[in-house]
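Hey team,

Filing this mostly as a record. A colleague (T.K.) asked me to run one chain through the structure pipeline before their review meeting, and I want the input and output archived in the tracker in case anyone asks later how it was produced. No errors, nothing strange. Just documentation.

Input sequence:
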Amino acid sequence: MIVHVLSVGDPAQRTGGYLYNARMVRGLRAGGHTVCVHRVEGALPELGPGVILADGLLWTDLGPAGAALARQRPVAVLVHSPLWREQGHARRQEEERALRPASRVIATSRRTAGDLDVDALVVEPGTDPVPAAVGSGGTRWLCVATVTPRKGHDVLAKAVRALPGSWSVRCAGSLTRAPRWADQVQGSAPERVAFLGELDAAGLAAEYAAADAVVHAAHYEGWGMGLAEALVRGLPVVSTPAGLFEGRDPDAWLPVPAGDSTALAAAMARVQDEPALRGALGSAARGLGLPDWPTQVAALARALEAL
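Output structure:
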């Protein structure tokens, strides 16, 4: 099978959606498929024979050009998170109208699929087998999320101001996607919140290994790859709703409503103050049985082969 992947921006970016794409490309190639990655800036490139897999970040903005392509070729559109969740409800009809001509819409979670009025196949991200986190001794939170308004770092900073004890928060994630917002959040955050920027794979793995708990304050999260990486390492997690939690053991994380800094601070304080709770959350997290990458690559390959 020949697959043409259409990407917007640098495919090597280390955000959840781009990491998903990169793992799928690597897995498809390892399975004997030919995968050509095209960085689309403006007009569509000339494409040889094969199936097209277009990132949802790109697809809606292609407009009539995308609709024409879908009439001529087998096209699957990969949606990590609905655009309208990031850019406002006014874009919802435009996004759904752009998706309907595609041969197949593939969503990375049931939550994302349910937030779009189109038929979608769900192919969740995978995980790798990793050792359990070692921790720092009980005083370090980790937040893994690109610093944009949707990820709720402002809510997290407000919660930390009300948080008792000596715990600190280390935030790993790009500071360049919404630079003005990132500057504002950093300027308003307490001293015990450190912003590390975008880390490479080794640097991020080291942060997970040294963390004692993970916190996520996003206003909306279609899946939550950073959360999945925490859970497979047996880290206690405090989080707003995310797609990966749906249909899974509710005892594997401590939920809080989005946008509520008071509830977030209270949940974080519980984790800090109750060693037994931390242990129970970690044990349940390790037992979740999240899907692995080979299984998910195979699922995507079947979907593309069917086109």
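Quick notes for T.K.: The chain has a mean pLDDT of 94. Residues 140-286 form a domain with the Rossmann fold fold (CATH 3.40.50.2000).
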